[in-house]
């Protein structure tokens, strides 16, 4: 049943992927495009712009314990799995496909090594979800079998994740699947987390940001671009007409008829009077004006910006009067709020995956009282001056201590920068303490009869014992 669900959803996921990559097939209405130009393909990348504009504001920076304890073990697991780079891939797939999966397992090395956290595409993985318990009951992943047997990339295998074990299967000669390996972990939970986007109560699987409305507007804009291409082919050069000309005007000196293009691009068009002495009339039709189609495309851009919550200038639609910095930030308010909602949803998935990783490493679940937090970069675009000014006012009012890590976070420093600042503070404190100690020793040595005891006197004459 799990594999049937995965294969059933694959077509819809592939369609969203095609729109994201600009590879979708635009449906031709069969009215205005001549057969000779049906092979012409126009692409407009609005789905990619909309999705990437949201993903670019989702920057996972660190994992930490909520109680402020040392989070070195969390950082070690995250860095061993390159999660701070892999997280952008997971977020992008979750926005394009509507969901992404995080699979947790034990390390491959023989000795002690951090647990593995891998990002898996929904094209090759599915999960059976229990909405009441808010966790998965079984998961299935289809992947290449070259890690278990010597085979080509076309050879596939299944990995079944269960609460007590992970089962690996290969295709059998009878047409079914044969179990080749089992990993008995007895965790009691399925070590797979689903990172869902735009969930609803009746739809926990998640929905893509590339909605049917986005696909419809994209197709319409592509057809308008196609119409502009066709118009450029037929009406790019203004059409001319000649009334009352003789046949010789369209022939070479030897009587061979000129091609239509040679006649059109001739710099000098010499025409003789007819037998009655009348000069032929020469005129030109008005050239095609693409302004009407460009206005329609601008309309589609405004509609698309409302669908994605993007400022119009991100889709190439601009006005004559450039917007101020404050106006641009105000137009980004909806995009910032959407980013904050995704941070809350995706952050919960990352926290659950990290708890599973600690569970796999230690053989027992972490204490429920110890909560894991994810640290994200601010999805808004405040100026550095505004952030620092607000932080300084809080410190001056006594709300925040000046040496707190929270103060540095509010000032806009990243996790790596805050760690370096903490090291510098400890170094400065140690240097100051050492300087004070040396001053006290110097003061004691300057007193009359206040010479420092030598090593023998300090050791109380025990001959070094």
Verbal overview:
This protein is an alpha+beta fold. Among the domains are: 1-131 and 196-236 and 288-380, no CATH class; 237-287, no CATH class. Helix content is 42%, strand content 16%. It has 13 helices and 12 strands. The protein has helices at 2-21, 46-55, 72-80, 83-97, 212-235, 260-265, 291-308, 325-331, 333-362, 384-396, 405-410, 415-446, 455-458, and strands at 60-65, 99-105, 116-120, 125-130, 135-144, 156-161, 165-171, 177-184, 192-196, 240-243, 281-284, 372-376. It has a 5-stranded antiparallel sheet with strand order 4-5-6-7-8, covered by helices on one side. A 3-stranded antiparallel sheet has the order 3-2-9. Strand 6 and strand 7 form a beta hairpin. Helix 5 runs antiparallel to helix 7. The protein is flat and about 135 Å long. The protein starts with a helix and ends in a 7-residue tail after the last helix.
């Amino acid at each position: 049943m799990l594999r049937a669900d995965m294969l059933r959803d694959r077509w819809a996921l592939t369609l969203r992927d095609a729109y994201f990559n600009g590879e979708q097939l635009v449906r031709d209405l069969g009215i205005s495009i001549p057969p000779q130009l049906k092979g012409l393909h126009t692409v407009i990348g609005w789905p990619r712009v909309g999705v990437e504009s949201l993903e670019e504001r989702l920057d996972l920076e660190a994992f930490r314990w909520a109680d402020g304890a040392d989070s070195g073990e969390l950082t070690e697991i995250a860095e061993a799995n390159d999660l701070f780079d892999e997280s952008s891939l997971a977020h992008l797939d979750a926005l394009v496909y509507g969901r992404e999966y995080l699979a947790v397992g034990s390390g491959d090395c023989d000795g002690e090594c951090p647990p593995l956290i891998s990002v898996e595409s929904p094209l090759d993985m599915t999960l059976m979800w229990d909405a009441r318990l808010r966790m998965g009951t079984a998961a299935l992943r289809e992947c290449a079998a070259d890690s278990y047997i010597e085979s080509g990339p076309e050879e596939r295998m299944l990995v079944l994740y269960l609460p007590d074990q992970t089962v690996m299967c290969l295709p059998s000669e009878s047409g079914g699947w044969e179990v080749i390996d089992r990993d008995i972990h007895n965790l009691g939970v399925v070590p797979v987390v689903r990172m869902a986007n735009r969930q609803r109560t009746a739809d926990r699987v998640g929905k893509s940001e590339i909605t049917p409305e986005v696909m419809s507007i994209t197709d319409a804009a592509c057809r308008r671009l196609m119409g502009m291409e066709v118009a450029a082919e037929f009406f790019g050069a203004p059409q001319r007409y000649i009334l009352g000309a003789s046949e010789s005007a369209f022939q070479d000196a030897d009587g061979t008829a000129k091609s239509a293009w040679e006649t059109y691009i001739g710099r000098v068009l010499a025409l003789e009077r007819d037998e009655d002495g009348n000069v032929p009339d020469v005129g030109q039709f008005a050239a095609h004006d693409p302004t009407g189609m460009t206005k329609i495309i601008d309309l589609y851009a405004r509609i698309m910006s409302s669908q994605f919550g993007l400022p119009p200038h991100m889709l190439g639609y601009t006005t004559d009067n450039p917007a101020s910095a404050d106006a641009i930030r105000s137009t980004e308010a909806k995009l910032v709020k959407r980013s904050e909602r995704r941070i809350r949803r995706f952050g919960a998935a990352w926290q659950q995956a990290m708890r599973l990783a600690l569970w796999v490493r230690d053989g027992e679940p972490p204490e429920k009282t110890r909560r894991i937090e994810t640290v994200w970069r601010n999805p808004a675009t405040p100026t550095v001056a505004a952030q620092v000014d607000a932080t300084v006012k809080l410190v001056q009012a006594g709300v925040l201590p000046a040496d707190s890590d929270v103060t540095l976070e509010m000032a806009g420093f990243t996790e790596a920068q805050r760690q370096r600042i903490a090291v510098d503070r400890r170094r400065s404190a140690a240097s100051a303490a050492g300087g004070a100690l040396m001053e006290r020793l110097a003061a004691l040595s300057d007193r009359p009869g206040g010479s420092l005891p030598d090593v023998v006197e300090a050791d109380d004459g025990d001959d070094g014992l």
